[in-house]
């Protein structure tokens, strides 16, 4: 069950000028979107599910920054948390709304981990993404909307990220001891 709605004609642009269409795309619960990046977040590998769901060809994504698929409605604080976590050598689970080349969006439950070389040093990052339960998205979407509203109050990206990161910490603390535990609580509620 790859798509739930018909796709508008693909724009095939390089991602930056893609405008959201409001069309939501889904993918099978048994499918995994997989990608790998270098240390700077530049895509070095994307599997066929990534390409199909994002509506990109392989040559359009390899060599591009992973934020090529960043949806404008995703709060920057989530990505700041992701990069802080990865820099500490830890994995992160997060709900992410991505933007396809044709303007459709698709939610994922991302599991992002550092990739290690033979000498034990971090050489890049690996991400597996699953199709999230609709109820999980209903739980995280209001949180993300609050973070976006906070970010929009500030004139610079740096100030916006700092403010929304503080708010993310506060909102998570109201529900769980840590971000990881918050995400696992959402996952566990959906599995019951």
Automatic annotation (TrEMBL):
Pfam families per UniProt: PAS_3
Signal sequence extent: none
Domain (PAS fold-3) ranges: 44-126
Residue span of region Disordered: 1-22
UniProt protein name: PAS domain S-box-containing protein
